[in-house]
Amino acid sequence: MGRGAVLALSGGVGGAKLCLGLAGVLPAGQLHVLANTGDDFDHLGLRICPDIDTLLYTLSGRSSRARGWGLEGETWQVMAALDQLGGETWFRLGDRDLATHLWRTQQLALGRSLTDVIAELAGRLGVDAAVYPMSDTPVRTTVQTVQGPLPFQRYFVEQQCAPAVESFSFEGIGAASLPAAASALLASTALETIVICPSNPYVSIDPILAVPGCWTALRDHRAPVVLVSPIVAGAALKGPAAKMMAELGLAVSAVAVARHYSERYPGLLDHFVIDRSDAKLATEIEAMGMQVTVTQTVMSSLADKQRLAGNCLALENS
Length: 318
Ligand code: FO1
Prior knowledge:
Blueprint: E1 5-10, H1 13-25, E2 31-35, E3 41-43, E4 46-48, H2 50-59, H3 77-84, H4 97-109, H5 114-125, E5 130-133, E6 140-145, E7 148-151, H6 152-158, E8 165-171, H7 180-186, E9 191-196, H8 201-209, H9 214-220, E10 225-228, E11 231-232, E12 235-236, H10 241-247, H11 254-264, E13 271-275, H12 282-286, E14 291-295, H13 302-313
Parallel strand pairs: 1-2, 1-9, 2-5, 9-10, 10-13, 13-14
Antiparallel strand pairs: 3-4, 6-7, 6-8, 11-12
Helix pairs in contact: 1-2, 1-13, 4-5
The structure holds ligand FO1.
């Protein structure tokens, strides 16, 4: 029997790995990805959408294996020339990656929506999945740190996540709205599973769920909502999630991740997937009202990604 549609919520590198696994086990056209745009910014006159690009490059087999973001086999001549001119090079844009930013910026300037531009980009890169920005209007994550507020990429790339974090805000979130195609999917019975990828809860998934109407639409759909923990054995699979949790005064564990979601989004999660190394945490998480699945969540190979994707899709509402 053929499968219905799947909606994945994702940030960048960590989430894209599971999306690649989902794309590999689903029939063509059934994977839809709602991507965080809180990391987007305008830089050197160009619109940069890091999480969307990471998803598109990963799903089309183009992403850098070493970095996870940007393109494999990239060269950096523009950055070197810009450096010589005294230009800003703290955020590294590769020579071929620049074509994406140039084209997107030009298309947006013509008045097209980000959703439309990304759909065409996906098609041109040969990506079969539908990748949607969480909103066509800009939402910008600000990280409140002990040194004051920082725009997300200044915190993440320029400051290398060094300043301790206090809280996060998403400028423009009040005016944000899901793209029509994502809303239509959430109103459709064809949607069979919602997967929240193992992305950073605070700066990748919270911005998506904060889009007005988003998290309640996910909660109210009959499809099970399955979250894969981004914290394994007290460490983040990727990025600064563990460091942020410690700075926020939280225990760095899958239990604290589950508590974050159950307190902020009551009734949203049906299934919580944890790694085998965290099996002992299952009872405490189940007490928060979700079913726990224990499996291997560390995705090194393509087979690992597809196995985890298959396990997520096998979960049903009880
Ligand atoms: N991450 C870095 O750590 N350093 C960079 O210079 C950098 C450049 C960059 C350019 C394009 C792009 O799509 C992503 C890029 N990233 C870089 C990654 C990006 O900052 C993060 O992956 C996300 O914003 C966090 O999910």
